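During data preparation, we tokenized the protein backbone, and the record follows.
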Amino acid sequence: MDGRSEMQVPSLDPSTPVLTCPVVAGLLVLGVCLDRAGNSQCSVRHRLAAASQHWHARRAQLCCRSAPLRSRIERSYCTVVRTLLYGSGGWSPSASVCGLLRSFELRCLRAVLGRRRKPNESYVEWARRSNARLRACLHRWGQLSVCQLFSKSLHGWAGHVCRDPADLDLHHVVRWRTTAWWQALQIVGESDFRNVMGWRHARPGNHTRWESPLFSIFGSDWMATTSSRTLWAATVETFVHFTLGAMEGLHPGKFSFAPFLRRPSTAQRSLVPFAAIPVLMFSEIHFSNTALDARRAPACRRVVFCLDSEVVVHWINGEWRVSEPGCTTLVSQVQDHLAMLQLQGVIMPWSLCGAFLRAIPREANVEADALANAALDLGLGSVSWFSVPSDFADIVLHSDGASRGNPGPAACAAIISAWADGQWCRAASGSRVLEPTTNTVAELEGSALAFEMLASLLSRIFIVE
């Protein structure tokens, strides 16, 4: 029966106590393919087929070299990519979905670019050369990639369905057996005295995979955050940043947030509804590359990062040769991002602002050191955000790490200060408890935390006017 089966369900009609209903593996509803098991691959492949048909119908127009390249690329995103992402707000994000979308996007854009292969050039080399050119053009023109647009679609759809009135069925469907419900049930199942084999259900089901990135980034009460359109709209860039990083394997860990906002006119504090933010667990060089990609801050005269790792400071400032084999590319990427920030007006040129990273003595870093030791004593890390004026000009970051035993229990801390209204204002301070490690690793983790907080500050997510 072409994948069909039958299912018997009870009926409310006494004359027909049992109804026989046909069941199919997939069903097209309003242009979207629904899978019986709740898997998004069926819908993704259906939209890829529809977008491919749309692409071949417009290929002659989009690949015509008489029109400017920018106009043709923008046209392809307004037509082909929009067809591809129809109904994508309900897809479950994953590395496989992101790979399918990215592969289709680059394949179409390479045809639009129309670069020919050089003599003795392999297909892989030609594709890499074309992809590099395309990414540079998209970055210069401010065009979001298909994966970024997919993440924004998921974020917008989540806010829309959670704000639906309680009398609509969709309001109850999106709240049926959520991840928070499953975790509460898991706690009950593990504590049951009759459960001698442990919790048997390792996964809540495919229907909750759509909620997984929202739950991981914004916490168990993320649905309450959607009630405010302004607050939810302000979190879209943070969601896109961390969702894409998670699909590419850049966020293997996370730390707990305990944030609050303090307004200068009052001593009242208000909690920010962000419970957990993923943290990248790579080197501080990779962190600077990730954080500086935010590009959402007013023009700053200076952004200075002070830390004790003198070697990395000299590497990024170009004063020393990079001796580690795997760090040359990362250092170059950081320098390229700094140059891009200058072109976009986020920070002024280096000739006016001086070095970005600066090595300072330990005596000048006592506040960050005290914050790290306090987190080590309490066994708990937190991040506090303060309201600062929007016209701040300078940003200074301090980070430090502490380890007792070397290796032993460790913690890290970071402090961000901004120059505004003729004085230094504390913009944020945070700490994080680490696994037992050495002092050097704790220093690197402190740099990681500082760059993560810098990304949030530049993206203007947590700053309240």
